[in-house]
Every structure is written in C-alpha cells, then in structure tokens.
Specification:
The chain contains 3 helices and 8 strands, in the order βαβββαββαββ. By secondary structure, it is an alpha+beta fold. The longest helix has 18 residues.
C-alpha cells in the first residue's frame, strides 16, 4: 500500500515531483490534478485560519488503498497518486492532492473526480476548523 498522509500542508515540491516524474512515461496522454486548498471562510463572524486534520490512520490508509484499487478497475489509468494532510494546515496551503494519468484526458478527469468524491464520502479523516481567535469547531463536509 502506498502511504497517503503528509504532516502539514502538502509542499509544492511534492506536486512538482509527481508531475516531472511522469515526463518520461510516453504512453500517457493526459494528467488530471485536483488540489484542495484551505479557505479563510467566515463562519458566523469568525475567520478560519487553519484546519487541523486527524484520522484513524491505519483504517484511512486501507480505505485510500481500496479507493485506488477500485479506480484502477473502473478507469484505464496509467497511474494515480493521492496525498492528504494530517495536522495543522494553514489558510492557502494544500491539504489534498489527487493526480491521475491516462492515455486519454476524459478518463483522467473522470478518475480524478471519482477519487475526490470517494475520499470525501468514505475516508475517516476529521477536520477541526481553527479560527483567528483560537476557538475551533469540527468541520462538516459538504
């Protein structure tokens, strides 16, 4: 199983490396990328400054693996990478990186959307919105 979690925000170097590592794979015709970024939401007059992510890591990694395997059965993918943050991720930082590759763009795009929706629906990851006044609340996925 591939390791999915990264402590803190996902650094641009991880994203760049994923892209550059695929330049030599000449059977790929398309890549699709989703980057989830932390927003400075205004919730009842309080501004989000960060989200602190926690997870049941062993269980979550297993679910990530199951989603990845299902995606490879459903779509003609060349490869796929998923990274999700744990710990504190500040506003403006990336918390979710999904990268798919295929011979055709439509497949890569559909697979990326599949990954994002499945992750949101099935992976036991919990986010605590931390406000600028240091108060917090548990995030509700929409």
């Amino acid at each position: 199983m591939k390791k999915t979690f990264i402590q803190g925000g996902i650094p641009p170097e991880v994203i760049t490396k994923s892209i550059t590592d695929h330049q030599s794979k000449t059977g790929i015709g398309a890549h699709s990328i989703f980057l989830g970024q932390i927003r400075a939401d205004d919730i009842e007059g309080k501004i989000v400054k960060a989200i602190e992510y926690t997870a049941y890591e062993e269980m979550a990694e297993k679910v990530f693996h199951e989603i990845r395997e299902a995606a490879f059965e459903k779509f003609e993918l060349t490869c796929a990478h998923i990274y999700h943050s744990l710990g504190v991720v500040n506003v403006g930082e990336i918390c979710l990186f999904v990268f798919t590759s295929s011979k055709r763009r439509k497949i890569a795009i559909e697979a990326t959307e599949y990954f994002v929706e499945e992750i949101k629906a099935k992976v036991p990851i919990f986010g605590k919105e931390v406000f600028s006044d240091e108060s917090y609340q548990w995030k509700v996925n929409t």
